[in-house]
Design goal:
With 236 residues, the chain is mainly α. The protein is 79% helix and 0% strand. The longest helix is centred in the last third of the chain and has 25 residues, at 155-179. The chain is globular, with a radius of gyration of 16 Å. The chain starts with a helix and ends with a helix.
Length: 236
Amino acid sequence: MSVTVFLLLGLTVLVAAFLQGSAGMGFAMLAAPIVSLVDPTLIPVMLLVLMIPLNAYVGWRERADLDWRGVGWISLGRFAGTFIGVWILVLVSVSQLSLLIGISTVLAAVVALLAPSFVPNRPGLAVVGLITGITETSTGVGGPPLALAYQHTSGPTLRSTVAVCFLVGEVISLAVLGLGGHIDGGTLVATAGFLPFLVLGSFLSRFTHHRLDGPLLRYLVLSFAVVSGVVVIIQA
């Protein structure tokens, strides 16, 4: 990996971590399209590994507003969706996976932008978890369904609940991917190099998470996701 590519991915991780820490969503939606353009072999392991410390921090920071009921039902569906995501990884090629990332990112972002206000029930939360398990395990992108479910709750509830749902799901996905032989040492070593960027982005978000809460940031994140997804589709 060249210095230019490393710095590009490092900056991507920094900005994505800042947005995730500030708004409660955006890391994978921002990072996955760019990483898949530069080195698609890093998907989804790099994103899953980096998001574990990030979401642990966000969940702990705003733990007082956690929706534990939602975490339970989403995690239940998430577990089932993980195995479908692994099945997709076995079936598709790297270029097909890049195309899947682009299409799923654009569609999920558009749905999140246009959906009316609603409060999901238990079956709805389980379905959200199922979809998240499929998309995050296969592409590293699982945020849009969770953002859609919690986009009309308070900022602290959205950030903390989505973070803990991610945390549980990422551990499940990595365990299943590891058992299936989809994790190699080279990817883990490359991922470790981006941890300083992740820490810096997470640290900076502590100064903005209570200020950037609201519709404007949500629209900016989802709009950027649409643009990034379109770029990946064209490239693929």
